[in-house]
Write a structure and sequence with these properties.
Elements (H helix, E strand, L loop, with lengths): L1 E7 L19 E5 L3 H12 L3 E5 L3 H9 L4 E2 L2 H11 L2 E4 L6 H11 L5 E3 L5 H9 L6 E2 L1 E3 L20 E5 L6 H13 L3 E5 L1 H27 L2 H7 L2 H6 L7 H8 L3 H23 L5 H16 L2 E5 L8 H10 L2 E2 L11
Parallel strand pairs: 2-3, 2-5, 3-4, 5-6, 6-7, 9-10, 11-12
Antiparallel strand pairs: 1-11, 8-9
């Protein structure tokens, strides 16, 4: 495995060669769910040359996508039938509570298609995929991008540019399906972070799901201060509560399926807050928390990624090598242009 430092930090532009567009007009993509993430994915893939179409159960959502010139339908059987005919890569882009009906339909109409998802938690999706017998060509995915908005009207083809896109490397992953999913992420201008489902869920509990819970609590605390408190609120309150603007049902769909991992990190956070409360009650210093928090933020701002190279999907030990690389900050920014695309 080769490695090249590419100087990437989460607060800066990705400093590496531009991500090559690898798709062509024969690359078929079927997106189930065309809200913020699924719709943005459909738009980004179309811009990269994919032949894409999608499903949305909402008539207004279908109408909005069609008005924008995209092939979106509320006929799930027909959408999946087309996927089966073209060996399309199917992307499940619905909240976790709606995943099972999508998998049930896929098992009925397109069970041989390569399959991925963009759901914010991976282990429950993988378990559901196994229940429907779809695991052989499934590769979990999660682009770390989004806004507080929802629906087709919020979609943005540039949403994934420079984002980290988690791509599953669990034991038994099919290398050809994995390559198609990784190529999709790269063609949407993201970088690929290889990660297992369980490690993904523990990580996002800390950096995504806990912030949602804390943002809700902070928003409630501010509102309880009445008009005066809200009238004085500025940057720290605005930034700390940004994701509380997300629709409540979506926040629940993000956090609740990852309850075990979220509980563990929530307990850690409550312990830190309890220590801070005890310090204030004793009229002593908050130095321990503020110093640790400042150092942690600086570590985030200065974090660097290195480029994963010379790992061929399907070669002996490829999954284990990618797992190790992902744990230590490795990202994939390009694939060999000679790699097979099914």
């Amino acid at each position: 495995m080769g490695a090249t430092v590419v100087g990437w930090s989460p607060l800066d532009e990705l400093v590496c060669e531009s991500v090559p567009v690898t798709a062509d007009n024969h690359t078929a993509l079927c997106v189930l769910g065309t809200g913020l993430i699924g719709g943005s994915l459909l738009r980004a893939a179309a811009a990269a040359g994919y032949t894409g179409w999608g499903y949305n159960r909402s008539a207004p959502g279908v109408a909005a996508a069609q008005k924008a010139g995209f092939d979106v339908s509320d006929d799930l059987a027909a959408v999946l039938g087309r996927a089966a005919e073209t060996d399309a890569l199917i992307v499940v882009a619905v909240p976790m509570p709606a995943v099972n009906p999508m998998l049930d339909a896929i098992a009925q109409y397109a069970p041989q298609c390569p399959l991925t998802d963009v759901v914010s938690v991976k282990s429950p999706v993988a378990a559901a995929v196994r229940r429907y017998g779809l695991q052989e060509r499934y590769v979990g995915g999660h682009p770390m991008a989004g806004t507080a908005e929802s629906g087709w009207q919020a979609t943005d083809p540039g949403l994934f540019r420079g984002a980290a896109w988690a791509v599953g490397v669990d034991p038994g992953t099919d290398p050809h399906a994995w390559t198609r999913v990784a190529r999709l992420a790269l063609d949407c201008a993201s970088v690929v972070v290889p990660v297992t489902a369980s490690e993904h869920d523990r990580a996002v509990a800390r950096i995504s799901h806990l912030p949602h819970v804390l943002a809700e609590a902070l928003a409630v605390a501010g509102a309880r201060g009445g008009d005066l408190a809200l009238g004085l609120a500025a940057g720290s309150f605005r930034d700390g509560t940004r994701v509380a603007a997300t629709a409540p049902d979506l926040v629940r769909a993000i956090c609740e399926p990852n309850s075990d991992a979220l509980l563990a990190v929530l307990d850690e956070t409550l312990a830190a807050l309890t220590e801070a409360r005890e310090a204030l009650s004793a009229h002593t210093s908050l130095d321990e928390l503020t110093t640790a928090g400042h150092a942690a933020r600086q570590r985030y701002e200065s974090a660097r990624r290195w480029e994963i190279t010379d790992i061929e999907p399907g070669a002996p030990g490829w999954l284990e090598k990618l797992q190790d690389a992902g744990r230590t900050g490795g990202v994939i920014t390009r694939l060999d242009t000679g790699s097979e695309r099914n």
